[in-house]
User: What shape does this take?
Amino acid sequence: MKILKALKALLKAKPDILLPIEPSDMNYLVAGLGNIGDEYASTRHNMGFMVLDAWAQASNAVFKTERYGDIAIISFKGRKIYLLKPSTYMNLSGKAVRYWLGKLNLPIGNLLVICDDLNLPFGTIRMRKSGSDGGHNGLKDIEACLGTSQWSRIRIGIGSDFAPGNQVDYVIGDLGEEEKAAVPGICEKVIAGVKDFTTIGPDRTMNNLNVRPKKADNDV
Assistant: This one.
């Protein structure tokens, strides 16, 4: 009887990782980091969400609420790109990323994470194939859940114009008017970078994306 009860319980249990689809090098997971809820929609910490929302809107793709996040699918040059907005909140982003990598049966090389970064001037875009979390709690949780930092990420600078001790209020504060005006152009550049990532690979994408802004003629 105990064995029978255990089998019934096992059948009813919902596994954290569902049966994977067939693996394919033409499938990619792009996770944009942010916090769910209208109160966070226009905050600096939600730059990852903003990029995915802009791409989905431009591609007429619709996000559907699934386990651990909202998912939209983009088809591009024979690739299937899964856009993930985790619903686990920023500090637990790794749970959603790990789940969807497993569900889609993707190698970690087909993962790209998009997030904000305090250590870069506003609007600066940097891509790396690996690296430290840089104090970003979302990246930190992904690294902890995956057990490695060897995955690609695109960081979008949000600057650090805040007084000592006000970091949290700054990152979850709303973008200023000038910053909001710059967001569409930032999203366009990042989306182009993601497309390159899926077609020409991370190395060439970094060469294209990691370009320092040109100095004005009156700069010394």
